[in-house]
Amino acid sequence: MPYQYKRFLLWSNGGEGKLGDNYIYIWAIEDIVAYNNDYGIHKYLQKEYLAFGMDGDIGYIFHLPNNSIYRVDLGDLDIASIKYIAPSFDDFLGKAIYLNFDKPQNIVDNSSTI
């Protein structure tokens, strides 16, 4: 797990609320394994991805080799449909304040970042 995310969990053990135009639910440490299993993250995506939160039916996932963050539709887990958001957890939180993640212009195509 990325250091910045571990630090956040030690401070608050998850949380939820509005950040800018986004409503983000960051799962508590004791829920991460269950949610990843329930949504089939490792079944439909690669094992190098770990979901850590959501906004409605959109999941937020770490790409563990480089700790970057992507979003994916939890009802349609397809590696080709994930979208890059930020290079780190801290950057993800910062971007959430200023950018609406539902607007396509604020999300980068995943093919250039994986």
UniProtKB/TrEMBL annotation:
Residues 2-94 form the Knr4/Smi1-like domain. Coiled coil: none annotated. InterPro entries: Knr4/Smi1-like_dom, Knr4/Smi1-like_sf. Pfam families: SMI1_KNR4. This is SMI1 / KNR4 family (SUKH-1).
